[in-house]
Every structure is written in structure tokens, then in C-alpha cells.
Design goal:
240 residues, mainly alpha, two-stranded parallel sheet, two-stranded antiparallel ribbon, 6 helices, 26% helix, globular
């Protein structure tokens, strides 16, 4: 076994030189870094093996989830191993959500586990990826690094200061429109439509595999594992 090279360039079909040139002065450089260098979950977690059980919704959509994992592997976005590829590792549970108008289920990944306080043998709590990304948490192993770039990261994250449990992360929050925002905009548009005697259409769009196309940075590979039944133990689905 060898240590994971956390500096590996991402494998992607995106035109990275084009994006780098066009977005050099883009205000959100963190977003640009995720595109060019790989997605980082920005979750400060301990060096622990965290095994999150599958959700109770999985049995109903088991076949759909299995087919989806194989499809993503065929596209080169997932990779299968017959052993644990990393240690420590997060193995996140899988679930399934029903779709409208079709029998195929939507695969979901449980990044909120453990759902209850869970401690390792040394007394360190195992945080879920979701919680670690939303709070300021100082993992024990962070204290063993003293190189200048790392210390700067600690300062920017305000992790060197005394922390209380549950303090919110210093990273900018994701801002999504609220229901009141949508209702306000619709009321304005509807008022104008009535005065102009024109119809008002509401529609949404979606992109297949939108987030799966964004490669994960190698430094975070160990945080996003999935354990699933081996293909030899069941009938393997047809490749996508």
C-alpha cells in the first residue's frame, strides 16, 4: 500500500485551459478552483473509518441504484474496487427516491451519517460530511502540520482560535431562493401579464449527470466511498 497522492490532476472531459482563460477574473475563485482542480467538500473531519449504513429506502429501488452505479462506472466517473482503496475512509450509505411517471428510482447518497453522536476508541467524535462542512471543527491531526500554507488555511478558517461545538463555518453559505422570493417575483410577472393580456408560463430545466461530471479532487476521494454488493454475488446489470 502507498499513501494517496493528493496532488493528482483531475481526469475530466471539460476544456480546462478554456475555462482557466475565460474565468481568470471570475469573482468566485473558489468555484473556479473546484472546476479546475477538483471538487473539495470543505469538510474538516478526523482521520477515521466511518461506515454509514444504507437507508431503509434502498430495498425498493435496489435495482435502480445498482444499475446507476454500474452506469457511472462505465462512464469513467466511478471506479470499482474489490478491496478498501483508502484507509481511513468514509463509506456513505445509499438510498432510493421514487420518481414521478416512471418506475426508475433516483439514487441518493447519505452524507448526513452518523445521525447520532458516535465516538472512536480515543474519544473523538465522527462527524458526517454534511455537518463537518457546516461547522468549524478542528480535527486532531490538523495540529501536526505547521507549513506556512497550512497555517494560512487555519487562519482563514479561524480554526486556530478556541472553538465551541457547533460554531458555524466561516465559509460563505450557499444562497438559494426562498418560497417568498419566488412568490414575489411571480406576483410581479403575473400583474404585468394580466395588464398585457399575455399568458405567463412557468418551466424548469435540468441537466442529466450535472454534478457527476465534476471530478472530485484526489485529496477528498477517501471521503466519498460507497460499499455495495459485489457483481459476482448477483446478476450483473447490462452496461450503460
Amino acid at each position: 500500500s502507498e499513501p494517496l497522492d493528493v496532488t493528482l490532476p483531475i481526469e475530466t472531459h471539460l476544456n480546462l485551459p478554456f475555462l482557466r482563460k475565460r474565468l481568470t477574473n471570475y469573482p468566485d475563485q473558489n468555484l473556479l478552483a473546484n472546476l479546475l482542480e477538483g471538487i473539495r467538500f470543505e469538510a474538516d473531519v478526523e482521520l477515521q473509518a466511518v461506515l454509514v449504513p444504507h437507508l431503509i429506502s434502498l430495498p425498493k429501488g435496489f435495482t435502480s441504484v445498482r444499475n446507476e452505479l454500474y452506469r457511472l462506472q462505465t462512464l469513467g466517473w466511478y471506479r470499482f474496487f474489490d478491496h478498501l482503496p483508502f484507509w481511513p475512509i468514509y463509506l456513505n450509505g445509499q438510498g432510493a427516491t421514487a420518481r414521478k411517471l416512471e418506475t426508475r428510482y433516483r439514487r441518493t447518497t447519505e452524507c448526513g451519517g452518523p445521525r447520532r453522536p458516535t465516538l472512536d476508541g480515543s474519544g473523538l467524535r465522527a462527524l458526517s460530511i454534511n455537518e463537518a462542512a457546516s461547522v468549524r471543527h478542528m480535527p486532531a491531526w490538523y495540529k501536526h502540520r505547521h507549513d506556512p500554507p497550512w497555517l494560512q488555511y487555519m487562519q482563514e478558517r479561524e480554526l486556530a482560535d478556541p472553538l465551541e461545538w457547533g460554531m458555524p463555518s466561516r465559509r460563505p453559505p450557499e444562497i438559494k431562493p426562498t418560497l417568498s422570493m419566488v412568490m414575489r417575483d411571480l406576483s410581479i410577472l403575473l400583474a404585468a401579464a394580466r395588464r398585457l393580456e399575455e399568458p405567463l408560463y412557468i418551466f424548469g430545466d435540468d441537466a442529466k449527470d450535472y454534478f457527476n461530471q465534476l471530478a472530485i479532487a484526489s485529496e477528498d476521494w477517501w471521503k466519498f466511498g460507497v460499499v455495495f454488493i459485489h457483481a459476482d454475488e448477483i446478476t450483473a446489470p447490462r452496461s450503460a
